[in-house]
Amino acid sequence: MAAAAPEEPHVFPPTFVVSPLGTHTHTLILLHGRGDSGPSFGSGVYIATPSSGFTLPSLYPGLKFVFPTTAERYSTTFRKVMNEWFDTVSLSFPEECSHLQREGLREAVAHINSLIDIEIAAGVPEGNIILGGISQGCATALHVLLSRGRRLGGFVGMSGWMPFASNVREICGLTTGAGLRNNAAAAALDTHSESESEKEQEFAAPPMHIDAVMDDDDETLDVLKTPVFLAHGDADETVDYKLGRNMYTTLKHGLGMDTRWRRYREFGHWYKEPDEIDDIIEFWGEKCGLIPS
Fold this sequence. Notes:
Belongs to the AB hydrolase superfamily. AB hydrolase 2 family. GO terms for molecular function: carboxylic ester hydrolase activity; palmitoyl-(protein) hydrolase activity. Residues 16-170 form the Phospholipase/carboxylesterase/thioesterase domain. This is Putative phospholipase/carboxylesterase. InterPro entries: AB_hydrolase_fold, LYPA1-2/EST-like, PLipase/COase/thioEstase. The structure is a single chain. This protein is globular. The protein is built from 10 helices and 9 strands. It has a single domain, classed as Rossmann fold (3-Layer(aba) Sandwich). By secondary structure, it is of the alpha/beta class. A 7-stranded mixed beta sheet has the order 1-3-2-6-7-8-9, sandwiched between helices. A two-stranded antiparallel sheet has the order 4-5.
């Protein structure tokens, strides 16, 4: 029997880009959540208003806004084709059947890295590039950052979680946190052709970058110098608040990253205006060298 032809890589739609109002000095790359798109998410962020009443473009005329859109792929959770960066079985326990995440994350890493490289080629230093996202976009962007292995200007994560968090916490010597019910869950999904042993092996194997970022090599450890801002509403019914908190403790206490955490009480799954915008602006000024005009 002839071997099955390899699947074609998913195609990413054009990126939604808003040019800076003034001389280009910094770039913000933000990834949308599952079921959303770059133009939809980006249009809202562009007009998001802090307590000062001034929008981000008016505060940062040198800031370029980049909002990529993920490719469409089949969602096991929702059992339909939709915009999602990678596949998952459960939003409550995102580490279940984690082998399903790998294809999407591999493609996302390549795509987002290409966008970062475009900015660098245009003369923007890596230290002036801020990466981040919301929900699944936050999870994806964090994976991109750690996989890249080099410091960026900053990271902003909203209402998200950390892919393969249990693997990272184990390597760091932390106890297993939220996001996983049990390792046997990988064998529960019967919609794929791998054998049970293959599924378990794939599930258990951590991504290559996890071991890499724990290496003593100075160049590899450079990524851990990226300042991180994380925020989450404690009434989030889409991505459990505990998953966000688990991401924070893993980055700060496991990987030793300079990580700032903000909790918004009785707030759900989104970014909170003006509070969260105020907190991000403060973080940019104190940690990323991005000062409002």
